[in-house]
Design a protein that fits this description.
It is found in: Cytoplasm. The protein has 9 helices and 15 strands. The longest helix has 14 residues. It is globular.
């Protein structure tokens, strides 16, 4: 089978599309014929070696965590899923023709494989950080860098819970944020005052790692009311860096429920082939995403 992998840490040029042995489902796992794989910022952060001190990996390594596909192998002890089922979930080395998933759920019938691949990690992350920042119904949450996959999920999940959301993004994405129910403003010079004009902020999330931690603490008045998923230096300012995933099965179940109720929709901004993995990482690292990017196999 074909798989994207890298043998050394570095830029996108270290990614290679190679022939690799097919993986097999172990106990508690399923294998899928991958139809699409999510492209997440964590993918290129791992490729660059940013997490080696906290979560070391051995090289050569595959790329990708999220996938949607058709089950073709069921591991020992697995119940409730059969060969031929359409599922989406999280595993390892998902930029490949076959991948093993450790968490999965039936795909919502309304989604294509391409759409479904964009949900697992972003919804888990959104649910986790909304919980960690402690924002409650009736309060206001600021999402800095809100137009990407996690931001899109945060805005919709928070609004469904009765939380007012202020989102910052580039000028081209203001209408997109408003369409998701957010009070929108641009980042850049003067953004703190623009946020203040929209209302007081009870909690804030740093989703882009654009060096705004001090300002988010200033707006909330308390570093404990700020969580970052993108700035590894956040703890130096007393802000929690959230990088350890919670329950993916619970997140997938909640995502499916939100999607079925019409409360969650994350558009696919662009699709790539396995041969274009380097371009996908370049685009992901550049940011300015509206929704999700995915690999189509």
């Amino acid at each position: 089978m074909k798989r994207v992998s890298f043998a050394e840490f570095g830029g996108p040029d270290v990614l290679q599309l190679l022939d690799a042995p097919e993986p097999h489902a172990g106990p508690g796992q399923v294998r899928v014929a991958v139809r699409a794989a999510g492209v997440n910022p964590v993918d290129w952060r791992i490729r660059e070696g940013q997490f080696q001190k906290v979560h070391p990996i051995e090289l050569p390594a595959g790329v990708g965590l999220d996938a949607a596909g058709v089950v073709d192998e069921v591991g020992e002890g697995v119940e409730g899923v059969e060969v031929g089922d359409r599922v989406f979930g999280e595993g390892s080395s998902t930029y490949a023709e076959f991948a093993v998933l450790s968490a999965w759920a039936p795909m919502p019938e309304s989604l294509t494989f391409e759409e479904a691949a964009g949900y697992p990690s972003v919804v888990e992350t959104a649910l986790r950080i909304i919980g960690q920042v402690g924002v409650r119904p009736g309060q206001t949450l600021l999402a800095s860098g809100a137009s990407g996959g996690v931001g899109s999920a945060v805005l919709q999940i928070a609004r469904d819970r009765g939380i007012t959301v202020i989102g910052t993004a580039g000028a081209a994405n203001q209408d997109y944020l408003r369409g998701l129910g957010a009070l929108a403003t641009t980042y850049g010079e003067g953004w703190v005052e623009r946020v203040r004009r929209l209302g007081s902020v009870d909690a804030a999330l740093d989703l882009a790692g654009s060096g705004v931690i001090r300002e988010l603490v200033e707006l909330t008045g308390d570093p404990r009311k700020v969580v970052s998923i993108a700035d590894l230096g956040a703890p130096e300012l007393g802000v929690r860096f959230s990088g350890v995933a919670g329950s993916m099965p619970e997140a997938l179940a909640e995502a499916a429920g939100l999607i079925s109720r019409g409360k969650l929709h994350i558009p696919v901004e662009r699709s790539y082939t396995l041969a274009d993995a380097a371009a996908a990482h370049i685009d992901s690292r550049a940011g300015h995403t509206r929704g999700r990017r995915v690999m189509v196999i």
